[in-house]
Write a structure and sequence with these properties.
- By secondary structure, this protein is of the alpha+beta class.
- The chain folds into three domains: 58 residues, no CATH class; 185 residues, Glycosyltransferase; 83 residues, Glutaredoxin (3-Layer(aba) Sandwich).
- It is built from twelve helices and eight strands.
- Helix 5 runs parallel beside helix 7, helix 7 runs antiparallel to helix 8 and helix 8 packs across helix 9.
- The chain is globular, with a radius of gyration of 25 Å.
Length: 355
């Protein structure tokens, strides 16, 4: 670094990235310093400092380009993209960031165009223009998760319909009809000695955990109890393993929490582009309420398409010409309201107040 940067720049890097002559990395087992440094910022720098650090980074990068670059893994995986799409769509809602939403939509269109097959089937990997390997449970579950989040970020019913179609294919080809739960590989995949059912939630959640949460959320969108019943079977199938080691199944516990409730189906009846509709949606999204689904019923249409898709929203219209929120807690609906404070009070339900 001293050969590339001038003394002031070296001092700036050492000071801001907490470098030490003896190294700042402590070996976990011995608790001794190893002589190596892990460069890290303790706080986000001010603009002037950011400009200086960017200039330093550019110098170091140009020098690094003269060497052989590290191998770049260029394959595109359906399941990992599903996780990314989920995060981007959720981030777009929380931070009101259009760039995140655009990236999520671009990614889902690529995956469905290049890794989607007929009959709502998925492939696992895309590389160098070639799509191959029949999709695994995580490919379906994670992509469905992303599609649900995209629907709630855009209220484009295409995403929700695609989520349901993929979920039906997932049940058809991965569900264990004898014991319950989802196998990791499909019934028409390469034949293995066994068909495992993974429920371990590590750095990446298990397919069964996400599939259970997806089915619960999808049942709340439509009012159809069948998916909720399958989720209940999953819970019973894996309950003993989860009870024995809850920390190894944290995402599954999230699904169980949704099943126990209070959980919400929220319908906004209002013109989709109207300001009063946006105000209600922003009020809902301002509260941290993970156990919910949000449906927009677009009242500017004579026959909103969502009416054919969900069996309980047909009469959730505007009241007195204003966008109106209908909040149902564990399938029991509160009086409709267009008041932000009332919405937030409804969304703060507990078991003592949700009835």
């Amino acid at each position: 670094m001293e050969k590339i940067l001038d003394k002031n720049e070296v001092d700036l890097v050492i000071r801001n990235f907490r470098m030490e002559i003896s190294g700042n990395y402590i070996e976990e087992a011995t608790r001794k310093k190893t002589g190596y440094n892990i460069l890290h910022l303790e706080k986000y720098p001010e603009e002037e400092l950011r400009d200086k650090l960017e200039n330093i980074r550019t110098k170091l990068f140009h020098h690094r380009k003269s060497r052989v670059p590290p191998h770049k893994d260029t394959k595109i995986l359906t399941d990992w993209n599903g996780l990314m799409i989920t995060a981007l769509a959720r981030g777009a809602i929380v931070f009101q960031e259009e760039e995140y939403l655009n990236a999520a939509e671009k990614a889902i269109h690529f995956i469905l165009s290049n890794l989607g097959e007929s009959h709502n089937r998925l492939l696992h990997r895309y590389k160098d223009g070639l799509s191959e390997i029949k999709g695994f449970l995580t490919d379906y579950a994670f992509l469905i998760w992303g599609l649900i989040e995209l629907y709630e970020a855009t209220f484009d019913l295409h995403y929700l319909k695609t989520a349901f179609a993929l979920n039906e294919a997932q049940i058809e080809h991965f569900w264990d009809n004898k014991s319950g739960g989802f196998y990791f590989n499909a019934d028409d995949s390469e034949e293995l000695l066994t068909r495992p059912k993974d429920i371990y939630d590590g750095a990446i959640p298990s397919g069964n955990s996400i599939a259970m949460l997806n089915m619960l959320r999808l049942s709340y969108f439509t009012g159809d109890p069948e998916l909720e019943e399958l989720a209940d079977i999953q819970n019973r199938v894996f309950s003993e393993k989860i009870k024995a080691n809850p920390l190894a199944h944290t995402q599954f516990l999230v699904a169980i929490d949704f099943a126990i409730g209070p959980s919400y189906s929220i319908v906004i009846g209002g013109d989709s582009l109207a300001e009063d509709t946006k105000v209600l949606i922003d009020a809902i999204n301002s509260a941290y309420v993970p156990n919910k689904v949000i449906i927009q019923r677009k009242t500017e249409l004579n026959s909103p398409e969502i009416d054919e898709f969900s069996n309980f929203v047909q009469y959730f219209d505007k009241l007195n010409g204003k966008a109106t929120a209908y909040i149902c807690i564990n399938k029991m609906c509160k009086p409709p309201t267009d008041d932000r404070n009332t919405i937030l009070r409804y969304l703060n339900a507990s078991w003592s107040t949700s009835s």
